[in-house]
Design a protein that fits this description.
The protein has helices at about 115-130, 145-155, 225-235, 260-275, 330-340, 345-350, 355-360, and strands at about 1-5, 10-20, 20-25, 35, 40-45, 50-60, 65-70, 80-85, 135, 165, 185, 190, 195-200, 205-210, 235-240, 280, 290-295, 295-300, 310-315, 320-325, 360. By secondary structure, the protein is an alpha+beta fold. The structure holds fe (ii) ion (2 copies). The site of one fe (ii) ion has 7 residues, from loops.
Length: about 375
């Protein structure tokens, strides 16, 4: 059991297993909240919390658990909008793990695990208050017509939610070199193949395609100049969404390699000069990390469909942006993502989540 996520005023607590029964949650000895847990993995979101340290007491049929955390202050000024991101949906993937041996643990469900994790992630982001969704790559597991059809089916479930879709390396891989669709779904959501910019209250959203045809790695070459120009011209702070991460070392020290250190360093130096008030977030690594490069905040946010199974939330204030990373909480999604943590003989379990400071962080 852990405090998985915090953000101004709220937190998400998750657990790997509890038997069926009543749970009572109490924060700082305040009024208890009761809920019935159906058994297995689960989560609870607590709202309306004041900033500062919190002692949490959770009583279940297994006994009492004690956790502590701190609720962050708001970055300052008025809250102007909320934006969500998802990435690495891998719709059309049949299994998971290095040996592809981890298969769906809920075959009776109407959706396969990849679709149900992505679908519940979007539902939960809407409930949280997102007014825009950025899908930052690897929405299709392979470059196949049937995988892009699944991406279309997914986005059509949410016809009223504005979305931005950029490709990842899996969308441009060499499995079946069909033409990448120009758009997906009946709603005709464009697959953005360059740089796209939208101004939202308090934030300029810039999303860019970093893919290289048939390759797993990424590049800034075709998009760097335009991103820097758009960011520099922005009247507000910037949220920049990419698929590939910037490698921190000259050689890739972990899988999968992303954008070379040389290209990443040059871009981040340019961004610090042009628009230091920027947050850059990527996917691709299926893990959660964050670091500062000068004034710029650089984050990686995990996949919807494998442990820990997350989406990113960005709360835009006058005085900054707060990133939080929530686990997809729907029972049949979290049951799958808990099950999927055994990948790489269990090593995935410790590698992917990052720390709470990696996930929940302010620009
Ligand atoms: Fe991926
Ligand atoms: Fe990727």
């Amino acid at each position: 059991m852990q405090v998985w996520a915090v953000e101004p005023g709220a937190m998400q607590i998750t657990w790997g297993f509890l038997p069926r029964g009543q749970l009572t949650v109490r924060v700082n000895r305040d009024h208890p909240i009761s809920l019935v847990h159906e058994g297995g993995p689960g989560s609870v979101a607590l709202e309306s919390l004041s900033p500062g340290p919190k002692e949490i007491e959770i009583t279940s049929v297994r006994g009492t658990f004690r956790l502590s955390t701190s609720i962050p202050e708001r970055p300052g000024g008025e809250e102007l909008c909320r934006i969500a991101t998802i990435s690495d949906l891998h719709l059309g993937s049949g299994n998971w793990g290095a040996l592809r041996t981890i298969r769906d643990n809920d075959p009776g469900h109407r959706d396969h695990y990849d679709m149900r994790c992505a679908s519940y992630a979007i539902n939960e982001a809407i409930d949280w208050g997102a007014s825009l969704l950025i899908i930052k790559g690897d929405s299709a597991h392979h470059r196949r017509e049937r995988d892009f059809a699944l991406v279309g089916q997914l986005v059509d479930r949410f016809p009223r939610l504005p979305m931005i879709l950029i490709p990842g390396n899996h969308d441009v891989d060499r499995t079946h070199p069909i033409d990448i669709p120009l758009s997906v779904g009946k709603r005709g959501l464009r697959m953005e193949r360059g740089v796209v910019t939208h101004d939202f209250p308090g934030v300029r959203v810039i999303a860019a395609d970093t893919t290289i045809e048939f390759k797993g790695t990424g590049t800034m070459k075709h998009v760097e100049e335009q991103i820097l120009t758009e960011a520099a011209d922005s009247p507000t702070q910037n949220l920049i969404a990419l698929h590939h991460q910037f490698q921190e070392h000259p050689v890739a020290t972990y899988w999968p390699p992303g954008i070379s250190r040389r290209e990443g360093k040059r871009f981040l130096a340019g961004l610090n000069r042009a628009a230091p008030n920027s947050l850059v977030t990527s996917g691709h690594t299926h893990r959660n990390r964050s670091r500062r490069s000068g004034s710029v905040l650089v984050t990686e946010v995990g996949s919807t469909k494998d442990w820990p199974g997350v989406w990113g939330g960005y709360r835009v204030f006058d005085g900054g942006i707060y990133q939080t990373v929530r686990r997809v909480a729907a029972p049949s999604a979290i049951a799958w993502t808990e099950y999927s943590r055994r990948a790489l003989l269990g090593l995935w379990s410790g590698w992917s989540p990052g720390t709470i400071e990696d996930r929940c962080v302010a620009l």
